[in-house]
Specification:
123 residues, mainly alpha, Helix Hairpins, single chain
């Protein structure tokens, strides 16, 4: 499910907005691959905290419940840091995703992966 914004705002536009935001604040000096990777991990932990100790059904409810705004904020932080990481490291995000999806298609063929959660080396 995609929103109207997802359909019209490109990765390039987002990456440029994020780069400008950091540049305006002179933050590039802090945005090293090490620091950004750690920031991504920290924000991912903050996202996970909203689901800690919940079972699957409860986690689905939480994603739509009163904590949704905070959950959305944490996801946005993760994506912002990931896109800034791609800016700093010179990674073409769309190309990286296309290549990873192609590799995943080989590792997880539909006839083996459909409907099961096993890792590719466990088929």
């Amino acid at each position: 499910m995609s929103s109207e914004q997802d359909a019209v705002v490109t990765l390039d536009v987002l990456k440029k907005r994020i780069a400008a935001f950091a540049a305006d604040r002179d933050w590039e000096q802090f945005h090293t691959p090490k620091n950004l990777s750690m920031a991504i991990s920290a924000e991912a932990a903050e996202l996970m905290e909203h689901f800690l100790w919940l079972d699957s059904a409860q986690s689905n409810e939480a994603a739509e419940g009163p904590k949704r705004a905070k959950i959305v904020e944490e996801l946005a932080d993760i994506i912002i840091y990931a896109l800034e990481f791609s800016n700093i490291a010179g990674i073409d995000v769309a190309q990286a995703i296309e290549e990873k999806m192609a590799a995943n298609a080989l590792k997880y063929p539909i006839e083996k992966a459909k409907g099961n959660a096993l890792k590719y080396d466990e088929f």
